[in-house]
UniProtKB/TrEMBL annotation:
Any one Gene Ontology molecular-function term assigned to this protein's record: amino acid binding
Enzyme type, top EC level: transferase
Designated name of the protein: Ornithine carbamoyltransferase
Organism: Longispora fulva
Domain Aspartate/ornithine carbamoyltransferase Asp/Orn-binding residues, every copy: 144-300
Length: 303
């Protein structure tokens, strides 16, 4: 049976643990686990880290990456996702796509006969979360029982992925967001259901200081996600109290790490001190995109 990775809860707790273990091994030993394979990587949204980490990672596994710019191909000119999936499946061993609505990647997966990987959608950013969990494991030795706090837009794809992936990992996930930017209730309920089986927990906060107290991880994202620039919403005013800064770091547990999926708007959602100081694991987190994605592709294609 073909396995896709469209959202974080597509991996069971045991499978997520297995993928993270593969990532740690790939980081240490640089194995070529996909020799002579081909992976198509489609970008309907622009990207720096996602593009470079997938292209370099696929090549590092011994496979051939084919990068497709969605804006200059049939993806952007009306071909259905189902039709594209059937054709690409005949050329490649896996399809990675960074796109808009989750309906688009669902349609692609429905028509594909090879694994489809979500490199970012409006709803989820699951590959980023694998990298984050790898970074947390490197810092704390495990993800089980770690208190993971996400501050900012609780309605965006990173918050949703933190809920699902964190709960799957057995973490205690706290989302701190202002009124009007709450996570999807369905995602919260699903995360709570998963957490009940893994020993984790899920909680929503309005007060960022309360959420940060005793935290092991303080994570955030840009206040305005790609595509939201012209939607007329004022995000700066409500999000200022949720900035990751020295004040929140002092409330957290000893050994706290700060995370940001990048690109960061320094001085807005995160300060220079939180990005560059001793608590920062931001750049290790960015490096781990490479190995987490390599591990996921190896796991999916070699099943």
């Amino acid at each position: 049976m073909i396995r896709h990775f469209l959202r974080d809860d597509d991996l069971s707790p045991a499978e997520q643990h297995e993928v993270l273990a593969i990532a740690a091994s790939l980081k240490r030993f640089r194995m070529k686990t996909l020799v002579d394979k081909t992976v198509v990587v489609v970008f309907e949204k622009p990207s720096l880290r996602t593009r470079v980490s997938f292209e370099a990672g696929i090549a590092g596994l011994g496979a051939h990456p084919i990068i497709v710019d969605g804006s200059s191909t049939h993806f952007g000119r009306g071909e259905t996702m189902g039709d594209a999936a059937k054709v690409l499946s005949s050329y490649a061993d896996a399809i990675v796509i960074r796109t808009f609505g989750d309906d688009r990647i669902a349609a692609l997966a429905a028509g594909a006969s090879v694994p489809v990987v979500n490199a970012l959608t409006d709803g989820f950013h699951p590959c980023q979360l694998l990298a984050d969990l790898l970074t947390i494991t490197e810092s704390f030795g495990q993800t089980q029982g770690v208190t993971l706090v996400y501050l900012g837009d609780g309605a965006n794809n990173m918050a949703h992925s933190y809920l699902l992936a964190g709960a799957t990992a057995g973490a205690h996930v706290r989302i701190a967001s202002p009124e009007g930017f709450d996570p999807d209730p369905g995602i919260v309920a699903k995360a709570a259901q998963i957490a009940a089986t893994t020993g984790g927990s899920v909680a929503l906060f309005r007060d960022p200081r309360e959420a940060a107290t005793g935290a092991d991880v303080l994570a955030t994202d840009a206040w305005t996600s790609m595509g939201q620039e012209d939607d007329g919403k004022d995000r700066r005013t409500p999000f200022w109290p949720y900035q990751v800064n020295e004040e929140l770091i002092k409330l957290a547990a000893p050994g706290v790490i700060t995370l940001h999926c990048l690109p960061a708007h320094r001085g807005e959602e995160i300060t220079d001190e939180a990005m560059d100081g001793p608590a920062s694991a931001v750049f290790e987190q960015a490096t781990n995109r490479l190995y987490a994605q390599q591990a996921l592709l190896s796991w999916l294609v070699n099943r």
